[in-house]
Amino acid sequence: MPWFIQEGESISREEIEMACRRLIDEARARRGGELKRVLLLPPDITRAHCGAGWIAETFYRLLPESDVHLIPTLGQHVPHTDEDNRWMFGSFPLERIHVHDWRNGVTHLGTIPAARVKESTGGKADWEIPVELNTMTVTEKWDLIINIGHVVPHEVLGFANHNKNYFIGLGGKETICASHLAAGVYGIENNLGNLITPLRACYNWAEEQFLGHLPHVYMMLTMKRDKENRLVHSGVYVGDDQETYLAAAEASRDQNITVFDQPVKKIVAVMQADEFRATWVANKAVYRTRMAMADGGELLIIAPGVERFGEQQEVDELIRKYGYCGTPKVLELYKKERDLQDLAHGAAHLMHGSSEGRFTIRYAPGGLTREEVEGVCYEYADLQEALARYNPETMNEGWNTMPDGEEVFFISTPSAGLWAAKEKMQC
């Protein structure tokens, strides 16, 4: 059963800070002791808009007598700079913010058997998934671990957060690669917006098997658009079980999925410069809108902060080498190319980021040239021209008719939802 749930049309920062205090009180009562050492596990900067940064800072202020540490659940994303951490986590001491090292900072806990993966995916994936997690998290003594995050439709796990923060956010290379490839071959559109995807089912089993020793609790947030089209908090879900996740995911499914009667011919999406610096993360614009796009339509992604493709140099090189060339081609290449096999999560990313030839993906990046963008099988748009025509400061959230009569659907925060034509919805 959840520890507690708070829902509303618009939950204020003050109310969320009160929920943080209640969580601490509940933890003290349930754990039956002092909270001498506390670990916070918020998402990284690419999900900063959900408020996880100031929530982590709130917990730090509420625990002045505790030894509080923090690990952004980066997965294999680029580690935060000190400037990033100050921007996101405010007064939280930099020396207590630790970097997750997905290659060298993990401990092997066990394996999700190949038979379980095969059964879960209906035979589409038939390999085991090693479970490697952040060593500091799973081997050091903690009195409480608070796992903070935003529950929103997600391309790999149906909905983000909950134990995703462990198995991807704090996962090792082998876990991340095997997991992403399994989700990729199962199909991104079979995952999006579903409460329990095959990979989520595998992670639920792994949590029961390998994480039972952790004194942890999830603080999951939902957000939605209010009457003025502002993104506001709509739910706080606190607990340490599957029921808490399901309550949050069901709320997100109701609030964060926009269904169109007909596919959309043109969508313009903005990826904020302070959160999205690589197509690896900015491609959330592709993932969250692909089921809404009409065949032959166009998705324009305005991404002033994008300056590279991959989060690591070797993944960036992989994307530049093969491009977003479509699932059949990627799978063909994967069978014979050693670099794709070694970076299987990169192969999955190439599948997820392709329109499979159905619609045009056009990027307007701040730090990539036309040649670079077109070299990875996307189309290019000049950033200043795109901003002049589709000014985020003046565009309406949703439908817009441009002066020349062009109709476009504008999305200011693609990472906060899922858009789909009715014919594509399965959940």
Layout: helices, strands, pairs:
Layout lengths: L3 E8 L1 H19 L5 E5 L10 H11 L4 E4 L11 H8 L16 E7 L1 H7 L8 E6 H5 L4 E7 L2 E2 L3 E2 L4 H4 L5 H14 L1 H4 L6 H13 L5 E10 L5 E9 L2 H15 E4 L3 E7 L8 H4 L1 H6 L3 E11 L9 H10 L4 H8 L3 H5 L1 H9 L7 E6 L4 H6 L3 E2 L2 H7 L8 E4 L5 E5 L6 E4 L6
Parallel strand pairs: 2-3, 2-6, 6-9, 11-18, 12-13, 12-17, 13-14, 14-15
Antiparallel strand pairs: 1-10, 4-5, 7-8, 9-10, 16-17
Integer count of domains: 2
CA-based gyration radius: 21 Å
- How many alpha or pi helices? 18
- Oligomeric status of the shown chains? single chain
Name the structural class: alpha/beta
Strand order of the largest sheet: 1-10-9-6-2-3
On the 0-100 scale, what is the average pLDDT? 95
Percent of sequence in beta strands: 15-25%
CATH architecture of the largest domain: 3-Layer(aba) Sandwich
Low-confidence stretches: none
Query: Quick one: CATH class of the largest domain?
Result: Alpha Beta
Main β-sheet description: 6 strands, mixed
Q: CA-to-CA gap between the ends? A: 24 Å
Number of strands: 18
CATH level-3 fold name of the largest domain: Rossmann fold
Q: What shape does the CA trace take?
A: globular
What does this structure look like?
With 427 residues, the protein is α/β, with parallel strands linked by helices. The chain has two domains: 4-256, LarA, N-terminal domain (Rossmann fold), CATH 3.40.50.11440; 261-424, Alpha-Beta Complex (2-enoyl-CoA Hydratase, Chain A, domain 1). The protein has 18 helices and 18 strands. It has helices at 13-31, 52-62, 82-89, 114-120, 135-139, 164-167, 173-186, 188-191, 198-210, 242-256, 279-282, 284-289, 313-322, 327-334, 338-342, 344-352, 370-375, 383-389; strands spanning 4-11, 37-41, 67-70, 106-112, 129-134, 144-150, 153-154, 158-159, 216-225, 231-239, 257-260, 264-270, 293-303, 360-365, 379-380, 398-401, 407-411, 418-421. The strands form five sheets. A six-stranded mixed β-sheet has the order 1-10-9-6-2-3, sandwiched between helices. It has a six-stranded mixed β-sheet with strand order 15-14-13-12-17-16. Strands 4-5 form a two-stranded antiparallel sheet. Strand 16 and strand 17 form a beta hairpin. Helix 1 (13-31) crosses helix 2 (52-62), helix 7 (173-186) packs parallel to helix 16 (344-352) and helix 14 (327-334) runs antiparallel to helix 16 (344-352). It is globular.
